[in-house]
Amino acid sequence: MTLDQMTPHPADSATETVVDAMDAPGPQVWDDMTVEVALSVMASAPSRHLLVYDEDGRCTGLIAQDQLTVVRDSSAYTDRVRLRDVFGDNGPFTSPMTTIAEAERTMRHGRLGALPVIDEHGCAVGVLALSR
Q: How many structural domains does the chain have?
């Protein structure tokens, strides 16, 4: 896997920051949304993940379609399960100033396909994704 690049020439991952390789934030949802509604949003968006926000407008993480599908298909699922019930701890996140090499290590270590890039106020400014 390699990092998706926004520019046609390869980035120097030791000095370039995630701003040079990140995608636009993409679909954003609130943590009080139900799993079923989130799956509907995802089905209508060309994205494999959703950024989740809390009631204060801060990004609390990223959730992938396969995570939502596992929850929906579980025996404990009801149509009242909300995203905040599915989420564990917040993060991981990265800063726009993180080097690509650092972010890639974090993603590989955590086996993450995508990583939210957030600013100092907790707002998502992009998503760094590994290509498959």
A: 1
The set of residues, in sequence order, having a beta carbon less than 8 Å from that of 24 and lying 6+ positions away, is 126, 127
Could you tell me the pLDDT band of residue 45, with boundaries at 50, 70 and 90? confident
pTM metric for this prediction: 0.78
Alpha carbons 59 and 14: distance in angstroms, whole number = 27
* 33 closest CA partner among 79, 67, 65, 77: 79
The amino acid occupying position 50 is L
Round to whole Å and give the CA distance between 112 and 66: 13
Residue 131 exposed, middle or buried by CB count within 10 Å (0-12, 13-18, 19+): exposed
